[in-house]
Amino acid sequence: MRDTLCALVFNGVRAGETFGTEIGTLKSSKNGISGQVFHVNSTFVQIRRFTINEGLNVKFAVSSATQVGLVKNLYELKSNKDGVDFLEPVDLLLSDAFDDKTLIAELPKKKKEESWQFFGVINEKEWKYLAATSFDNKVVPSKFCCLAPLNGWAFGLKSGPVDVLDSKTLRVADFSFDGHKAPDAWFFVGKDSIDKKNARRCAILKRDTKML
Fold first, then answer.
1. Structural contact between residues 10 and 200, judged by C-beta atoms closer than 8 angstroms
2. Is 171 exposed, middle or buried (0-12, 13-18, 19+ CB in 10 A)?
3. 3-state secondary structure 45-71
4. Are 200 and 187 in contact (CB under 8 A)?
5. 35 shares its domain with 124
6. What is the pTM for the complete model shown?
7. Residue 79 domain-assigned?
8. Cα 111 from Cα 114, distance rounded (Å)
9. Which of 67, 145, 190, 212 has its CA 20 to 30 A from that of 16?
10. Is 187:202 a contact under the CB 8 Å cutoff?
């Protein structure tokens, strides 16, 4: 049994689509930094239209009055030649240039019971923000719980309740599947009858074991 975190990622911006609670904007003309920051949930932040100059060697971080933490993991939203979106891990050290990219940052755990106050791009040597925005007591998107467990008719497919973490992320608890016996398989999301014509593949963002 294992927990699987699936990110539902889609191309472009559609009417009514949400990326979470908007926190603010990262901006530094000197360093070529810009981007819109959204609080997806208590664990993840999404940076849309992110741009930064090459060679700055900086990282994303969060801070409060008493603590600073570097983001735990960082992913870039990409699309393959078939138009299927996926999340690719990227180096936490931002040494390469980014131009109008979408990044997903996993926040570190707080060591003390206080909320993070700022998120931004930090110079780790000086612990100084090059660009930052304030959470400013904005409400973290609430979690909806839960969808019914998955119950398959073949290959031992089953799971615990499916948690809806936000508009784009599901957590599938206690997932079991005999993948070595089955043909190629994906997580899909859609409306009505779900098939390849009217549904989207989901990117697996994180799992608690190396193999499904």
1. yes
2. buried
3. EEEEEEEECCCCCEEEEEECCCCEEEC
4. no
5. yes
6. 0.62
7. yes
8. 9
9. 145
10. yes
Type of residue found at 62: V
HSE, CB side, 13 Å, CA atoms: give it for residue 157: 14
The string of pLDDT tens digits covering residues 64-92 is 988 899 999 999 988 777 666 778 899 99
- In the block, residue with structure tokens 């206080």: 114
Q: Tell me which of 12-21, 97-106, 139-148, 161-170 is least confident.
A: 12-21
DSSP characters for 104-154?
A: EEEPPPPSSSS---EEEEEETTTTEEEEEEE-TTPPPPPPEEEEPPPB-SS
User: Cα 68 from chain centroid?
Assistant: 20
- The answer to whether the Cα torsion of 38, 46, 116, 94 is positive or negative is negative
> Are 93 and 157 found together in one domain?
no
106 & 190 share domain: no
Give yes or no: residues 164 and 199 share one domain: yes
- Choose the final residue of a domain: 134, 158, 174: 134
Last residue of one domain, picked from the residues 103, 134, 165: 134
In a domain, 165, yes or no: yes
